[in-house]
Amino acid sequence: MASKIRFSKYQGAGNDFILVDNRDNSFNRTDEVLVKSLCDRRFGIGADGLMLLQNKENYDFEMIYYNADGREGSMCGNGGRCIVAFAHDLGIITDKTDFLAVDGAHHAFLSAELVNLQMIDVHEFGRDGDAYILQTGSPHYVSFVTNLKEKNVFQDGYSIRNSATYANDGINVNFIEKEENGYFLRTFERGVEDETYACGTGATAAAMAVALQMNLEGEIVIPIRVLGGQLYISFHKKGNSFTNVFLKGPAQFVFEGNF
């Protein structure tokens, strides 16, 4: 690996990421200590996660995602939107793309400053008391609450994520509340082990939970407001199956440099 790492910083609704063009395979994918140090907000660049953009046969590129704890993670929706913007800025793609991530192939397209990312289809869900359990590329616990603005998301999310049920594999914990023009969502993310400003797979899971709770059917668009901005989740729902799932929101370049 080179002594200096060339990186770009992107954010999607406040969910921020370090992006590295690793088409030359110079970044050591097994160096968890390095990834964790780069994501450290006091001693590194600072981010919710790090992504490598790599060559992949039959695709425009491959997305390798790491959580802020340094470990390779499951799918990150906002990260997926940011790496699409990164690939566009590198000149790898124009206005649409097909790329590979840990949960399979993804299609995406860009419109203005928004990235529309196709997520995986979902055909089943679980329940834990009143909460919904959904796998949208990452595992999510979704609970409907009131007075979400005042909720201690770190304390309550940490407690659920580290409970006997979820401690081994971990789970992302989402709290959602109805508001005038859609829904307000706050998320405690595993791997970050803290509340984040946004979570794309979490917003997707929350929107599906809304459709299940409200017994909605057909073509659906759910506006989800997060701490960092506005996301829109669309899908076709038939029974308990969700297809043609898209996560739409901003993905913006912040800065670049060498570390």
Describe the structure.
The chain is of the alpha+beta class and 259 residues long. The protein is 17% helix and 44% strand. The chain contains 4 helices and 17 strands. The strands form 2 sheets. Strands 5, 6, 7, 8, 9, 10, 11, 12, 13, 14, 15 and 16 form a 12-stranded mixed sheet that branches. A 5-stranded mixed sheet has the order 4-3-2-1-17, sandwiched between helices. 42% of the residues are buried.
Compose a concise summary of this entry.
This protein is α+β, with helices and mostly antiparallel strands.
Q: Keywords, please?
A:
259 residues, alpha+beta, Diaminopimelate Epimerase, Chain A, domain 1, 2 domains, 12-stranded mixed β-sheet, 5-stranded mixed β-sheet, 4 helices, 17% helix, 44% strand, globular
CATH superfamily of the largest domain, called what? Diaminopimelate Epimerase, Chain A, domain 1
Under CATH at level 1, the class of the largest domain stands as Alpha Beta
Can you name the CATH architecture of the largest domain? Roll
Tell me the count of domains: 2
Rg from alpha-carbon coordinates: 17 Å
Q: What percentage of the residues does DSSP assign to strands (E)? A: 35-45%
The fold-level CATH name of the largest domain is Diaminopimelate Epimerase, Chain A, domain 1
Low-pLDDT ranges: none
Q: Which class best fits the helix and strand makeup?
A: alpha+beta
Topology, element by element:
Elements: E1 6-12, E2 15-21, H1 32-39, E3 49-54, E4 62-67, H2 77-90, E5 96-101, E6 104-111, E7 114-118, E8 126-128, E9 131-135, E10 139-144, H3 153-161, E11 172-179, E12 182-189, E13 194-196, H4 200-213, E14 218-226, E15 229-238, E16 241-250, E17 252-258
Parallel strand pairs: 2-3, 10-11, 12-14
Antiparallel strand pairs: 1-2, 1-17, 3-4, 5-6, 6-7, 7-16, 8-9, 9-10, 11-12, 12-13, 14-15, 15-16
